[in-house]
Amino acid sequence: MSLKNETLKPFVPNPSEILKESQHFLNSTSFSRAFLVGFAVTLPIILGIRSGYFEIGLALCFGALWSSPSDVSGSFYQKAVGILISAILVTLVSFIGGYLHFELLLLLPILGLLTFTIAFISVYGFRASLISFSGLMALVLSFAHDSKELEIYQYALLIGLGGIWYLILAKLWSIIYPRAETEEFLSETYLLTAEFLEIRGKLVDPKADRKQLQSRLLELQGELTENHGTLREILILTRRSSGRSNYLDKRLLIFTELVGMLETAISNPVNYDQVDKLFKDYPQYITALQELIFQMSLQLKLIDQAGNDRSKLPKNNILRQSIDDISQRISEWGDLGDYEEFLMIQNILAYHKEQFEKLKRIKRLLGDTDTSEFELIDRKEAKRFVEPQDYDPKLLARNLSFKSLIFRHSLRLSVAVMVGYALGSFFTFQNPYWILLTIIVIMRPSYGLTKTRAKDRIIGTLIGGIFALGLIFLVTNPYAYGAMGVVSLIIALAMVQRNYRTSAAFITLSVVFIYAILTPDVLSVVQFRILDTLVGAGLSYLSMLTLWPSWEYVEMRESVEKSVNAIKAFLTSIETYYIQKGDVPTSYKIARKDAFLETSNLSSAFQRMTQEPKSKQREMNKIYELVVLNHTFLASLASLSTYIQHHGTTEASEEFKAAMNTIKQNLEQVLNSLKGEKQDIYNPNGKTVPIFGKQSSISDLLQDKTPMPMDIGGPT
Length: 716
Description:
Elements: H1 3-7, H2 15-26, H3 29-51, H4 54-67, H5 76-97, H6 104-119, H7 126-141, H8 152-176, H9 180-203, H10 210-237, H11 245-266, H12 272-279, H13 283-306, H14 317-336, H15 339-367, H16 379-382, H17 394-398, H18 405-426, H19 432-442, H20 447-474, H21 478-495, H22 500-518, H23 522-546, H24 552-580, H25 586-610, H26 620-646, H27 654-674, E1 680-681, E2 689-690, H28 698-703
Helix pairs in contact: 3-4, 3-8, 3-21, 4-5, 4-8, 5-7, 5-8, 6-7, 6-18, 7-19, 9-10, 9-11, 9-13, 10-11, 10-25, 11-15, 13-14, 13-15, 14-15, 18-19, 18-23, 19-23, 20-22, 20-23, 21-22, 22-23, 24-25, 24-26, 24-27, 25-26
């Protein structure tokens, strides 16, 4: 076949894959949560119209909609608290917003102050940022609706009641589907871990694009760490009832095995140059090793597909046979090959045997209803793995500084909102609050996410507007508009985290369908919707560039410092355990978890840096080296940790203590250097070596203000 014919071959979607993806989407908690929100906002409106109390229904609708963002993954107790606080906040904001009918010059500073105050709540973490978002939505939409039949206080109280209405629905949903969220996050963990192992298998091939695969491996490690954090919170903080106790205990054990698989993989780094050299004359070993790794990855995928059906769980025969075959080949190699090569391949096989044992344990936990043979995890001890959020009021005062990322974001957002409202009022836009909504939804503390969301919002709005106009001309039934509006809203809410561009398109569809019921001039609605989106997105992007911008190269010093501190704490825990022996203490496991988390956060910070303008990507190659060094150091510590846990060790020698002391001294020197002090590498023999050369400190490296005229296309 010619190259031309191959190139022109049309892409034909696989119907089975499309059906599978659709089923997965419809069964997801994001869709069920979106359906719940759709029901919560639609029912009050319908009942209000039918009974002649439309404004009451609308207020309840707004209250439910604005309180729903706090219904995110986690224990139901935390959700309930978040929804309740959101309901209280939107009630207060709606009450205040009802009286904001001043002249523009007086209104703007009040609007800016309220925006800053509400946005500043985000200093208390992720859940607080969702509550803050609810308050900002209520503030903006207080300009959109002027109650004619209800008093302002009545309207505000009904909005709060709408939040309570949504909380009741969320509670009912959790009673009906108590396991849905746990199963979904476990499913994601299976699949992400499977992909992680699969990529490690691909890396064995000397012909593979290892740079790209290693980059994806770092991304996956970050995704898995984030996923583990959410799942850990769900499993540990969820209150157990008598019917769910056994279920949660087993899922917590499965989760522990999955975390162990990731940590075991990281603690067994592979020197691929040596592997290439090792297998150069024995390519059959590469094939056999890859088949074993891919089979492990496949088994995790099959476990995910099996769900709660024990009969569909994959058997151990294929994996056991693969390991036996490789063991036989290795024994033959031991008789003929070099001892060093033999030892390396033995270590690789030992690693895969350890992963196989974890897989078998997961399948036993899923297939056996009796947990008596398993040592259950002490939930009181397990709670120590979930770091509590600091809600000290002094945290607000500590963040009232331009050093605070949230302070700068809140200030930037308030200025953008004031400018957006002024432009919308001065140029007589149809709905100035649409500009404000766009700003609030798009603008984020980081440049990369703001830029991406601005682009996706514009493209999604254009696509949604075009499709909406086409459907409006084809369909003229107002009931059909209402139905399509609700369906579009549900899909939009379900897609917010999965694909923001698609979500923006369906939000536009929903808005246009609703306006099509109220006004015949739909074309002007679409035009203004697109114009408002362009203005809001443009203001968000310009504000991010010019108003107290937050660049990752400035924050990188802190990210490196946190990672090094966590690694140092993990090293100290390993040293203490090696000296004292005995059972592995919980503090040791927590230190290990924190080290993995902070190293993953460092990788994420570097990834965000790659999304920023080239002029702000200072010393990218050297920072990339720091990121890789952190990962390499952590992998070495994890390998040492695994070894001393599974092998008998002698009493700690003076040489061991001296080596540990030297490493800790050097890590302390690194931390001091990050604070701007010139440091030398500590050496027990009395010799010192400057860190990063004679005239440099790590602080200089990370805070060099000179733009680097380099095209960074390498480390991503």
